[in-house]
């Protein structure tokens, strides 16, 4: 039998692939029988790392949102990563000798345009990797990175959420301004060097170079580079109490999301209220009704208590009648 052509058929055939691509829910994570809720760590966060090679400073700003797409935060000026991404890298290079600047952006994790691609999340308890470490390892894919040969390689992110009962995970996570860090060598006479506007001198005559490391920050940069399979991997370390195995058992779920049935009940009552208000308005304007007559099906509503009594009486009679003896009664 020939399947009739329909514009809905191709779209329906894409639904399984789309469902498989969106499989990471940071509010409902299950691993080895333990449940985790990382939704308090959601939102757009920025972390940067800088390296100095001879006269060239490479500053990479990583923008991430582990729970939902970055949206507008994925675009910075002429550098556009894609609003459907979860993690993007903005790399800025400055040559202190030639005074040349360059920049480019690359996606690390998330979906492609129009929801194509897949994040293919992998979730592993850290105790499987190290018996003394409690937490989760989350790997998200879907990115591309242009290497030195200008050929795009697959990119992904590996985030280790380490259990820390004293940290929420948001410590030190402030919006870092986009900047190009410019190193300046120490003056030969040992004099103080001028700041370049960042205001981050080290007090020893050296320039304001800052590699971005901060021990007080819960989210830490570990590395970014090629792995064994030649794909590029961003490794982050995130200390938070939400990665502890028994946090939800001790504190309950930290997410404020309502369940499906709660929304269903709310929608039902809203629809019922809208029906009563619209029906009352219609009866008032069309028939000039007052009092109970305003309500649509007012007679039925008034009879509800009596209908319920009749139904309850029938139920009682039915239950009592099942125990009676059948046949003819004696005269």
Characteristic terms for this protein:
four-stranded antiparallel sheet; transport; 331 residues; Cation-dependent Mannose-6-phosphate Receptor, Chain A; elongated; five-stranded mixed sheet; membrane; 2 domains; single chain
Give a brief rundown of this model.
The chain has 331 residues and is α+β, with helices and mostly antiparallel strands.
Care to describe what's here?
There is one protein chain. This protein is of the alpha+beta class and 331 residues long. It has 2 domains: 22-251, Mannose-6-phosphate receptor binding domain (Cation-dependent Mannose-6-phosphate Receptor, Chain A); 260-317. It is 23% helix and 29% strand. The protein contains 5 helices and 13 strands. The protein has helices at residues 8-21, 126-129, 247-251, 260-287, 298-321, and strands at residues 29-31, 34-36, 45-53, 56-64, 75-76, 79-80, 85-95, 100-110, 122-125, 135-146, 152-163, 219-226, 232-240. Strands 9-10-11-13-12 form a 5-stranded mixed beta sheet. A 4-stranded antiparallel beta sheet has the order 3-4-7-8, with no helix packed on it. Strands 1-2 form a two-stranded antiparallel ribbon. The N and C termini lie far apart (73 Å). Residues 1-22 and 175-207 have low confidence and may be disordered. InterPro entries: Autophagy-rel_prot_27, Man6P_isomerase_rcpt-bd_dom_sf, MRH_dom. Residues 186-202 have a biased composition (Acidic residues). It comes from Aspergillus lucknowensis.
């Amino acid at each position: 039998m020939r399947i009739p052509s329909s514009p809905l058929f191709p779209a329906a055939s894409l639904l399984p692939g789309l469902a498989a691509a969106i499989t990471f829910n940071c509010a409902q994570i299950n691993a080895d029988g333990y449940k985790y809720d990382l939704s308090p760590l959601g939102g757009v966060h920025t972390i940067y790392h800088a390296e100095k090679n001879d006269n060239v400073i490479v500053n990479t700003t990583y923008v991430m949102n582990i729970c939902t797409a970055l949206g507008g935060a994925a675009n910075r000026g002429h550098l556009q990563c894609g609003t459907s991404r979860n993690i993007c890298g903005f790399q800025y290079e400055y040559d202190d000798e030639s005074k040349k600047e360059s920049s480019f952006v690359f996606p690390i994790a998330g979906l492609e345009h129009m929801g194509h691609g897949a994040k293919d999340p992998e979730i592993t308890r850290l105790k499987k990797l190290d018996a003394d470490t409690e937490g989760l390892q989350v790997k998200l894919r879907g990115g591309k990175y242009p290497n030195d040969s200008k050929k795009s390689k697959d990119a992904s992110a590996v985030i280790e959420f380490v259990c820390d009962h004293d940290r929420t995970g948001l410590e030190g996570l402030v919006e870092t301004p986009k900047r190009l860090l410019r190193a300046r060598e120490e003056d030969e006479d040992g004099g103080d060097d001028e700041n370049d506007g960042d205001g981050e001198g080290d007090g020893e005559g050296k320039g304001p170079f800052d590699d971005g490391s901060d021990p007080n920050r819960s989210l830490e940069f570990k590395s970014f580079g090629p792995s064994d399979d030649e794909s590029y991997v961003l490794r982050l370390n995130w200390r938070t109490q939400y990665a502890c195995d028994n946090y939800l058992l001790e504190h309950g779920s930290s997410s404020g999301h309502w369940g499906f049935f709660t929304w269903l009940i709310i929608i039902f009552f809203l629809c019922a209220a809208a029906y009563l208000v619209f029906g009352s308005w219609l009866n008032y304007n069309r028939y000039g009704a007052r009092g109970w007559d305003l309500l649509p099906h007012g007679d039925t509503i008034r009879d509800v208590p009596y209908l319920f009594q009749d139904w309850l009486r029938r139920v009682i009679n039915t239950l009592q009648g099942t125990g009676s003896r059948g046949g003819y009664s004696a005269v």
